[in-house]
Amino acid sequence: MTTHQPGVWRRMRLWGAAHAVDDLYQGLVPAVVPYFVLERGYGYVAAGGLTLAATLGSAVPQPLVGLLVDRRPLPWLSAAGLALAGLGVGLSGLADGYALVWLLVLFSGLGIAAFHPAAGRAAREAAGDSASAMSVFAAGGSVGFFLAPVLATPLLTAWGVRSTVVFVLPALAMAAVLFRARHRTYGVAGSAAARTGKDRWRPFMVLTGVEIVRSVAFFGVSTFIELYWLRHLGASHLLAGAALTCFLLGGVAGTLGGGRLADRIGMVRMAQWGTALTAPALVLLRVTPGQWAPLAFAVLAGAMLNLPFAVLVKLGQDYLPTRPGTAAGVTLGLAVSVGGLIAPLFGLIAQSHGPEGVLTVLPVVPVVGVLLGMFMVEPKPSWYEADGRGTGNGNAGGCENADGREKADGCEDRGAGNCAKREAPAGRIAR
What is the pLDDT of residues 359-372, one digit of tens each? Predict the structure, then answer.
């Protein structure tokens, strides 16, 4: 099955929409936090604690869920996770005590933990080897983050935090759609393509480090950018919400643009450049005066932070071709969520130096990602498997000629221990 068939794009649009609804609830947490601060009197540390709750729920279980869905598809799991994600954060505004609010946000995170690995595996199998198809799924998450403040800010401004209950409905509706379509959202040909190859854990761990750095910076900005506009710049609630919206809108553009640029300059180079350009964008966001001018750099910072996002998701599954659920659980789940674990630390900085203190520190974070990015490598093309470490001829030496030299035009494993020659695609120089 090729990704040009209508059925593939239909499945990818469904998974992209489901990812958007799911990440709407991740985006709701930073959108709602300032209103808990203003209405309930929560301090900055308590505010960071809510982000921590969402992160604990989503980060820790996701690799385990990924291992599980790599063994069994569990087509109902993504629907169940999506419903729990919406119920948790949607009901949090109705809770009166901080402990109950914290637990509901935690449960929402657990729902997200169930959704991402299952959905990531299904999307990978439906898309096959198509990066453009997978980018539809990845971009759905950025759209969800973007829509959260766009939809939440008017409701929260008018009706307060109790209006979060309205957001239970999209989760239940999309969960019902996924559950009804649970046996039609996997691609047969894509499944075969996604489950062959050699897992490369070392470059995957480097990639995970880069994604963690991106996540720390992303959560730092998204959690405190509204409070920065409110407390430091003296802006209105609507303008503060607009700042978060601009930041997340830039993220959508960066996610889509990063995939296109990666096709031109390579996935690893795209990830490296996106990480490197994040630091100056964050500096400009912090030092630009006024209430309106920094909005442009909020867009820019969001775009730079998200340029590598879809690329990192695709790279992760290319590095672990036999474990798409595990790769999705880490790149879409654990690594992304780890940024929320740092939120209480940013809360301490904000407690002492205000939200502006957080935005002053954040430009240092991407420097770590730049250093890690120097160790990233491109995945082996699907047509090139004879690299001296393969198992195409049934031995440790990979696909070799009788004299021990690698075949000049690549080879592939036929599944029976024999190595068959295969021509490189046009424009490629076989090594």
Answer: 999 999 999 999 99
